[in-house]
Amino acid sequence: MTFKVVHTFALPGVDLGEELLEPLDATLVKGMWRTADEIISHGRDADAVIGVVSIQPFTRRVLEAFVNCRIIAGIAVGFETVDLAAATDCGIVVTNVPDYCIDEVSGLAITFMLALGQKLLQIDKAVRERQISFTSDRKSLMDVLYPRFRMRGQTLGIVGLGKIGTATALKARGLGMKVIAYDPYVLRAVMESRGVRPVDLDTLLRESDFISLHTPLTPETSNMIGYEEFKKMKPTCYFINTARGGCVDQAALIRAVQEGLIAGAGIDVTVDEPIHADNPLLEMPNVILTGHSAWYSTTSDLELFHKPMTQVIMAQKGQWPLYAVNPDVKEKWLEKWGEKV
Ligand code: NAD
Predict the structure, then answer these.
(1) 207 CB contacts (<8 Å, ≥6 apart)?
(2) Per the count of CB atoms within 10 A, which of 125, 149, 245, 257 is most buried?
(3) Ligand 1 pocket member 159 (CB < 6 A)
(4) Whose C-alpha lies nearest to ligand 1, atom 35?
(5) Quick check: CB of 106 below 6 Å from ligand 1?
């Protein structure tokens, strides 16, 4: 019987991996559906559904309507809008794309460090406004650039040494930086094998010249960097957040920059996205804001939309998909759909 794939978030002009379906007896129905009723009406008889499981409503009612479905392949790292317990009850495996932008996000963390540490925005502004040459104008050099430190030998403190934290650490090591990290879930030996010195959070806050946050947002990490943490940082430290806005107490961050507890910040993610027009961060010259763009490159964008189809193909063949996020369904799922060898 023809295998029916329903794509609920088919952006025009984006490669959805359709060519992967060609060798199979499969059909693809695609559209852009936002409400639960629309998704049910198009996906009711699907064998596989692809959608953005961090935005679209894959609620229990929707999942129970998918009577043939074996997989919901998500186009995102996060999967907060799919009812995982309901998916497991319905025997459906849910997948995400956990690894499409490791290079991009770690690259932005390093870009923040270099731009902030080298005072790129301040220099650019001074040259545009006053056509300065810093070799012949010692006063401006001191006014704009002092104190600027050599990157080699500076200490980067990474909170959360997972995929992106590790990629950031390796890039920083390439710049000759010392890297320390706090992550209670990663073995000391593993950290050391990556050229990183494991420390407790207090030591990291006190010793780092740059602090870069790379944890998920969980009850444990919510507001984990607050005013007390900023008070422990060096006044020359730059704070970088490419993880989630909610990991940082935003009022405390604003106060820390205003009071000079830190030298500045590189902020990709904020509590309110888009950032609210009256947010004081918008007025701060020593804060760089990038509006949750860290994940994007032409390559990561391709990978994000292509990889869910690879998960669908695995499920179609009866293979347990690589990026499953509800492993509790595995036994039941393999019994029903698993490849018989
Ligand atoms: P990951 O799961 O590989 O790594 C997260 C690390 O955080 C793990 O090693 C974990 O042990 C650690 N951790 C968990 N709780 C901690 C705690 N209380 N203290 C210290 N460490 C803790 O995830 P990843 O792929 O490296 O991504 C990290 C985060 O980056 C994601 O969760 C996501 O929120 C964010 N992200 C942002 C963008 C963007 O565009 N800005 C894109 C992708 C991911």
Answers:
(1) 155, 157, 180, 199
(2) 257
(3) yes
(4) 243
(5) no
Query: Going by CA atoms, what residue is nearest to atom 15 of ligand 1?
Result: 215
* Å from CA of 221 to ligand 1 middle: 10
Give the residue among 37, 90, 34, 93 at the shortest CA–CA distance from 67: 90
CA of 339 to the centre of ligand 1 (A): 33
Residue with tokens 């759909």: 337
Residues belonging to the active site: 244, 273, 292
Q: Strand 238-241's sheet: what is its strand order?
A: 197-198, 178-182, 155-159, 210-213, 238-241, 264-267, 287-289
Is residue 198 reached through a cis peptide bond, with omega within 30 degrees of 0 on the bond before it? no
Range list of β-strands (E), the chain? 3-7, 26-30, 48-51, 71-74, 93-95, 155-159, 178-182, 197-198, 210-213, 238-241, 264-267, 287-289
* Distance from Cα 267 to the centre of ligand 1, integer Å: 15
Q: Which of 214, 218, 296 to mutate to test the pocket of ligand 1 (most atoms within 8 A of CB)?
A: 214
- List the pLDDT tens digit at each of the 341 positions of the chain: 899 999 999 999 999 999 999 999 999 999 999 999 999 999 999 999 999 998 999 999 999 999 999 999 999 998 989 999 999 999 999 999 999 999 999 999 999 999 999 999 999 999 999 999 999 999 999 999 999 999 999 999 999 999 999 999 999 999 999 999 999 999 999 999 999 999 999 999 999 999 999 999 999 999 999 999 999 999 999 999 999 999 999 999 999 999 999 999 999 999 999 999 999 999 999 999 999 999 999 999 999 999 999 999 999 999 999 999 999 999 999 999 998 76
